[in-house]
Amino acid sequence: MHAGGAIGIGESWINYPNWGATERLATLLEGVAPLALGRDAEDPGDVLDTLITALDGVGRQWGARGPIWQAISGLDIALWDLKGRLAGVPLAALIGPRRESVPAYASGVGPTKVRELTERAAEMGLGAVKTKVGFGADTDRATIAAVRETAPDMRVFADANQAWTFEEAVENATWLRDAGVEWLEEPVSGDSPQDLVALHEATDMPLSGGENVYGLENLVRYAGTEGLIHVQPDVAKSGGLTIPLRLAERLPGTGCALSPHWYAGAIGLRASITLATTVEQAGWIELDVRDNPLRDALVTDGFPLSDGAISLPSAHGLVGDLDPDAVDRFQVQTDERRLP
After folding, report:
1. Residue limits of the Mandelate racemase/muconate lactonizing enzyme C-terminal domain (predicted)?
2. Which of 39, 78, 125, 328 has the most beta carbons within 10 angstroms of its beta carbon?
């Protein structure tokens, strides 16, 4: 996004399915950009509301709200980045920082390279690991056992990515709880709040989720689900920074912390850290510990960690400077004739 001689940079969720980037580019250029061009860059929330009003119905009729929200989210991140750049300060300074850092847990652990990635997390000073489960009981039990053997003092969470039926979720949540897993993310296919309540009542397992919930009111209702202790909006899916910031204002009294989901590149990670350090109800930040050049090589000053916590970015805006060599390596030419 361009305004006042500055450029704001955003990131949309495109890492699944493998054609996501092609679809997202078309949605951004042909659906989102014509509605956003010429609007006030100083008011990201107003732009977001305009886009939701115009396009959420398209997503419902298309049967694909996700791609619409993911495209809008990337633009919202760019607008917030632009807002900070135009002000000449880190965006957190405009929102109001609550803390200088936020505790991080390692993710991306399992079902393969479990020991290697757990060792990496320990070497980074992280105190918690989120394991991937939902690959069959034998594989899942081996994953948890490998983490325990590799780093006995590591706190352990688990993410099933909606892999189970309700009955399977009850069975698996029970043994995971007994194995000391502290909370379970997206355990049930369909992610129904009613199923989550019933699962918590049956197993007493604390739950988390929210990365695939679209719309502020839906997220607020989701955060109020009995047994849910972490609501996890994804800045590249859930409405950029605008919707999660509004969600945070509605969390008091729910018993639910805001712990942003993030599993992609550097730009969205910067936005997630800013979000988690500027809301009162913050819990954890997710830090994928697998190799990822679009995260590790793209920004010039990285993601400093201290005592298992990731520090608030100091760059102007959200993103700061991108490494020009990395941009050259990763950049793909698009058809400029499609630009409005």
Report:
1. 111-206
2. 78
> Do 104 and 286 contact (CB within 8 A), yes or no?
yes
Q: Give the integer Cα–Cα distance in Å for 113 and 150.
A: 12
Cis ω before 111 (30° cut-off from 0): yes
Question: 6 falls in which pLDDT band (50, 70, 90)?
Answer: confident
Quick check: 336 pLDDT over 60?
no
Q: Which of the pair, 15 or 284, is modelled with greater confidence?
A: 284
Name all domains of the chain by residue range, CATH numbers in brackets: 2-89+331-338 (3.30.390.10), 92-311 (3.20.20.120)
Within 8 A by CB and 6+ apart from 243, the residues are 48, 76, 215, 216, 219, 233
Alpha helices for the chain (secondary structure H): 20-26, 33-36, 44-62, 65-87, 91-95, 114-123, 137-150, 166-178, 193-203, 216-223, 242-249, 266-278, 293-296, 324-330
Mean pLDDT of 134-149: 98
pLDDT at residue number 337: 45
What is the separation, in whole angstroms, between the first and last Cα of the chain? 13
- For residue 310, the one-letter residue type is I
Percent of the chain residues topping a pLDDT of 90:
86
